[in-house]
Amino acid sequence: MTHLFKFLELYFIWVFSMGRGSGFGKVILFGEHFVVHGVPGIVSAIDLTVDVEVKRVGEGIHVRDERKGARGYAERKRTQQKESIERMLKIMGIDLEEASLEIWLGGNLPGFSGIGASAASSVAIARAIAEEFEMNLSDERINEIAYEAEKAYAGTPSGIDNTAATYGGLIWFRKNLSGGPNTFEGLNMKEPVEIIIGNTGVVADTKEMVAGVAERKKKNPEKYDPLFNQAESLVFEARKALEEEFDLRKVGRLMNENHSLLQDVEVSCKELDYLVNLAREQGAFGAKLTGGGGGGCMVALTPEKELQEAVATAMEKEGFKVLRTKIGVQKIRKISLISNKK
Ligand code: MEV
Fold first, then answer.
1. In a domain, 3, yes or no
2. Which of 3, 136, 305, 335 is the most buried (most CB within 10 A)?
3. Residue 53: pLDDT over 70
C-alpha cells in the first residue's frame, strides 16, 4: 500500500509540477544600435510581461506560443526561438538529448517587433526552467542566460533588452566591449510620463538589422564614426534632461534627433517614418523608432493623458496598433518569482 501511495505521489508531482517565470517588455528611449558598439543607452521596462510555464512531460521539447501578436511574428521567429531555447538549456547544464519539456508562452506583452518580446520570453523561460529544476538562480544569472538566448535573435546583442526584461525600471546601460560585465543603473525621474508605442505591423529581424549597421560602420567609418560620437553626446544630454532637469520638451527634441541618427545609419523605414511624423503632427513632444528598426515599433513622448490619447487615436484611426503606457513608473527592481511549486 505504501508503495502505491509513493507511486501516486511521484505521479502527481510529475503531472502537476511546473515552473513559472515572467519577463518585462521594454522600450528603448535612446541609443539602440549605437549601444551594441559601446555607446550608452536608456531603456524603460514596460508594465507588460511574457509569462511562461514549463513542465517536464512528454518527449523532446515542445513550445506552445499563445502570445497575442502581430500577424506572422511567431512564425517568423520560430527558428530563432528554437535556437534560443537550445542555447539556454546548454548553459543551464540541461542535456538537450534527454530533455522532455513542454514550454507554454503567454502573458500580456504582444509579439510586436521592437518592444523586447524575445528578451522578455527568454527571461521568462529561464526563470521557469530554473524553478522547475529547483536551481534557485539569482537575477544576475537569469540575465546572463537570457543574454545567451538573445544571441539567437540579435546575433551580437548589447544586453540592454535582457537587462530591462530581468530587472524592470528605467535603466542606463552600457555594454562592456572587452567582454567583462556590462554596467547598468536605475534612473530616477521626478514623475512618470505618458508615452505611446505605435506598431508598424511589419515584422523585423533584429539580427539582420544589427549585422547591417556593423557592416556599414566598418565599410564607411568616415560617415559612421561622427554619427556614433553624436549618439554618445546625445544620450548623456538625454539623461540630464530626464533625471536632473526633468525638461520634457528637451527630452522630446533629443528623441527626434536620435531618430535622425537612426535614419542616417539606415535602420528606419517608410512605415516608421510615417508614424513618427504622424505623432509629431499630433503634438507629441518627440518621436523615434524604438528597438531594432526595419519595421516594428516607434515611441512618442506624450505627457498627460489627453495628448497621449490624441496621438494614440490618430494612429488607431489609420489601423495601427498602439500601446499606451508610462516611463518612470517603477524603480529598478527584481521581479518576484511566481512560485507555485508543488
Ligand atoms: C534591439 O532592441 C536593440 C538593439 O540595439 C540590439 C541590441 O542592443 O542588442 C538593436
1. no
2. 335
3. yes
DSSP 101-155: EEEEEEESS-B-TTTTHHHHHHHHHHHHHHHHTT----HHHHHHHHHHHHHHHHS
Range of the domain at 26: 10-187
41: three-class secondary structure by DSSP: strand
Decide if 2 contacts 9 (C-beta within 8 A).
no
Nearest C-alpha to atom 9 of ligand 1 is from which residue?
A: 157
CA of 209 to the centre of ligand 1 (A): 9
- Tell which one of 29, 32, 122, 272 to mutate to probe ligand 1, the residue whose CB is within 8 A of the most ligand atoms: 32
Domain count, the chain: 2
In ligand 1, the atom with minimum distance to the C-alpha of 36 is 8
Nearest CA to ligand 1 atom 2: 291
The per-residue pLDDT of the chain, averaged, comes to 91
- CATH code for position 289: 3.30.70.890
pLDDT digits (tens, 9 = 90+) for 177-232: 998 999 999 999 999 999 999 999 998 899 999 999 999 999 999 999 999 999 99
Ligand 1 neighbours (beta carbon < 6 A): 28, 32-33, 35-36, 154, 157-158, 160-161, 206, 210, 291-292
Asked whether residue 149 falls in the same domain as residue 214, the answer is: no
Query: Would 136 be classed as within a structural domain?
Result: yes
136 & 82 share domain: yes
Looking only at the bridges linking them, the beta strands covering 41-55 and 100-107 are: antiparallel
